[in-house]
Each structure stands twice: as structure tokens, then as C-alpha cells.
Amino acid sequence: MKRVYVNEKWCLGCHLCEYYCAFASTNKIDMAYALKGIKINPRIRLEEADNISFAVSCRHCSEPLCVKGCITGALTKNDSVIMIDKEKCIGCFTCILSCPYGAVTISEDGVIQKCELCINTQERTHQCVRGCPNGAIVFEERGE
Amino acid sequence: MKYKYVIIGNSIAAVGAVEAIRRNVKDGRIAIISNEKYHVYLRPLISYLLMGKTDENKMKYRDENFYSRNQCELKLNKTATMIDPDKKMVILDDGSDVSYEKLLVCTGSSPVIPPIPGLDKVKYKFAFTTLDDAKALGNVLKENIKVLIIGAGLIGLKCAEGISCCKDVEIISVDLSPKILSSILDDESSEIIRKHLEKNNIKFCLGHRIKEFKDNTAFLDDNSKIRFDVLIMAAGVRPNISLIKDIGGKTNKGIIIDERCQTSVPDIYAVGDCCESLDVSSGESKLMALLPNAYMQGECAGMNMSGADYVFDRAVPMNSISLFGKHIMTAGTYSGQVYYESNGKNYKSLFYSNNKLNGFILIENIEKAGIYVSLIREKNTA
């Protein structure tokens, strides 16, 4: 299955992926206009320490603990993509407790958010991949 | 009636089993027996139903076509009274029988009714574990009401939160334990949550026992009394093990199962809140009434019932609960050395030994807590 992968060797730690991710979910046309003055809350997050940095987003696991543990049925896996139904989510955060990657976060409206591979955005392509200036984030099949 | 698969119980574990069976095989009829009248719904949401934050439709765990799509026949409002393991048959309370090739028992648990004199005469008393409980309670809630809750554990406190949206309601919780959420919190974290709840107008009477009820008054062991209009019984739950115990299957506090979720009786599996499972963080067999476990055990049983070979040996006790906007997460076993941070509102304790994580308690700052759970689990299964 194709996934978003990050090659930490090429990651510059520039955080641009986070900005592209936050921008994608605004569904606005101009990035500067969309993000000016706001504190972004992206679905991909950079982890960095010492000289190592890499971005982490949902792995869309084949054994998704977040989906299996969801107490509302808000998380489902459809066509290999784990999706969140924000109407059903009540913000119990069992998924945050379940996700071994720390890839589920809290959204502004108190429910959860996670990478949905940009399938509900207007661009419909992975904006973190597109926006990475050093080609460190890729969407590819690695045959796990 | 003859079925390939029979499931007693219609909650999360049953869904896990059905989905696993159908992932594995397309044929073979499934019968699901439930003593309730509902499409599979999410029990943990009943407090949100009281608050109006969800509705009966949203509480459905799976869509309307779930049963037909998976070729399941639902037998609602029926109680399985007995299993005949020789004839491979389940007897129902209406006298009918259902025969199985593989049977799954996921009968859940029932609220403990404390043996207190006078309790039977209390008119408005409710347990708080089912949709019917929540609806019945919802029907009597009104303004200016006094609610007494027996128990300051997860069920009692979520119920308190659910009720608190009523206008001018007075809520008091009595518990034998000197602290709230005593099964998942240590002293300091429990204290932080108690103060937070008290700020939200929940009162506590801790370390006390109710001796007797007379009309709508509870008499406590220190001779104080509490008058109330409505009584909630949230003094814990007991696993429903009798179907297996009655036929000589291995039980302790819960039904004993192996890592393939099989009971000691051939062709009978059991999963969910009615079972004990192995806590990988402590190595002990214990009751772990947790929704994620129920699904994953159900899935494991379903796989094995339909011919696969599947093991579930990764259960870790874990809880994510929010009360009046404060988030609490706990997991694992609280033993070993402690890494500790607290400012009286936010709290973090990490319990570890030999540089490996055994368990944790977090209040707020819950981001990425799943990484901790994963560390606890991997340490013990790697």
C-alpha cells in the first residue's frame, strides 16, 4: 500500500510540511492569506532533536489500533485510508491513547484530527509531499 | 435453528467477531442473541446522550445494514439461559434453541447492586450501563433535583457529568474508597480530579458506607444522612460468567480464556467484559473491561472460529476519560521508579524499572500518549 514516508536524511527541519498541511485543510486559495496571524495546528508534525528531524503523520496502519479502539465508531478505514467522522467523534481521545506513532491530535473544535491523505481537500494531492522543498517526503509503495 | 456461528451478546466484541469471520469466510450463517432490543450501540456514550451531545442514531456502532450485509440473524430481546455443550445448543428464555458449530460468549457484565437494607424500597433508582438505564434516568431528571450516586469510579463520575447539565441539580457521590477513581489514579492525581469536579459542583462523601435507606434518605456509617430524589448505583460491575460456569467451564472472577480467546469448553469462545485477560504490563490475568480490548478479542475469536489461527496477547489496561473538560489518560502498571511532574492542575507520572516503562498517569498534556502505551506493550511482547 502506498504511504507518505519521510526520509530523515533529507529532512531539513524547515516545518514547511506543517504549513502546507495546515493550508490544505483551510481549502483557501492563497497560503499567506489563509495562515496569516493564526497558530497552525497541522496533522503532520515535525519531530526534532539534536541533528535529526523528521515529520510524522498517520501511517494508515494495516492493523489500525485507533479504529479498533474508537468508542464512537467515528474512525473508519475505507479504501486503505483511515478517516474521521467529526460529527460522531465526542473527543474521548482513546485514539490518541491508542496510536503508537502519536499521529492523532486534537483539533480546534475539541474533536480529533489526523492525516486523511488530503482526499477531502480541494487539491486532492498530498500537500506535505508537494510542499517539501528537499524531496524528503514521498508518497510511494514500499511493499511492507 | 442451526447456525455455523452463534454469538451471545450484541456489543463491540460481537462486531469484532462478525467482521473477522466475514473477512475470513463469506458463507456460514451467524446468529446473534441479545437480551436488549437495540442495534449495536456504544455503551460508553450513554452519559453523552444525557448531555445531548449525541443521539440514539449516532450511538449506533455500525450502519443500519451491518447485520444483513454480514449475513447475521439478530435475535433481540432474548436471553440465553443455558448452553448444552454436548448437543452444541443454546437454550433461550422463550424455550427455543439455537444450535452452533462455534459459539462465542460475549455477555458483558452487570452492575453490582450493593446489599444495603431498604434499597429495594427506593423508588427512583438506576444502574448506569445500558441505553435503557440512560433513557429511564433521563425520564426522571428535572430541575432542582438531588441525585445520590453510589460509587466514584468511571461509571459514577461519567454519570455525574451527564446529569450535571440539568438545571440546579445537586449531585453527591458516596464511595467506600477514600479517593475517587481509585482503580486508575494514585493519590495526588485523584486529588486533582476531585478538586476539579468539586469546582463543577459535584460533592463527595468519601471513605464512607451507606448503612441503610429509609424512603429517600441514605444513612451513612458515621450516622450522617443524605436526602436524595434519585439514586444511581455505580458501585462497579460483575462479569456475566454463569453460562460458562454452569457447564463446568473454567472461570475465576471472569471467564478464563487462552490467547486464542477459547474457553476450556470445546468450540466455545469468550471475549470482552465477561472475561479475564492477560495484562502484558503486569503478567497477571485480570478483568479489563475496556472497549478496545473487547473489539480486538472479538476479532481474534472470530478469526479462530472461522478457521484461521490468530492470537491476541497484547492487552494493556488503558483508560482515556474526560470529565468537565479535563482529560485523563492512564495505562499499564504503577510499579517501579517514578518520573513525576505536577503543578497541581496538570500531572504526569511515568512508572518504570530497568529503564523500561511500566505504566503512566497523565492529566492534561496527553499528546502522543499512545507512544507510551506502545512502549509498555512492546517491552513485554518483543
Describe what this molecule looks like in 3D.
The complex is a heterodimer of chains A (144) and B (382). Chain A contains five helices and eight strands, in the order E-H-H-E-E-H-E-E-H-E-E-H-E. Chain A is an alpha+beta fold and 144 residues long. In chain A, a hairpin with a 5-residue loop joins strand 6 (105-106) and strand 7 (112-113). The longest helix of chain A is centred in the first third of the chain and has 9 residues, at 16-24. With 382 residues, chain B is of the alpha/beta class. Chain B is built from nine helices and 25 strands. Chain B is globular, with a radius of gyration of 22 Å. The termini of chain B are far apart. The model of chain B has no long low-confidence stretch (mean pLDDT 96). The A-B interface holds A 65, 68-69, 71-73, 87-88, 90-102, 104-106 and B 16, 42, 44-45, 48, 53-54, 58, 60-62, 291-292, 295-296, 299, 318-322, 327, 329, 331, 366-371, 373-374.
User: Percent of residues of chain B in helical segments?
Assistant: 10-25%
Question: Span between N and C termini of chain B?
Answer: 45 Å
How much strand of chain A?
A: 15-25%
| Strands in their spatial order, largest beta sheet of chain B | 3-2-1-7-18
Give the class of chain A from helix and strand content and strand pairing.
Answer: alpha+beta
Strand percentage of chain B: 25-35%
What value does the average pLDDT of chain A take?
92
Order of helices and strands of chain A: EHHEEHEEHEEHE
Percent in helix of chain A: 10-25%
What is the CATH level 1 assignment of the largest domain in chain B?
Answer: Alpha Beta
Query: What is the CATH topology classification name of the largest domain in chain B?
Result: FAD/NAD(P)-binding domain
Q: What do we call the CATH homologous superfamily of the largest domain in chain B?
A: FAD/NAD(P)-binding domain
Overall mean pLDDT of chain B stands at: 96
What is the subunit arrangement here? Answer: heterodimer
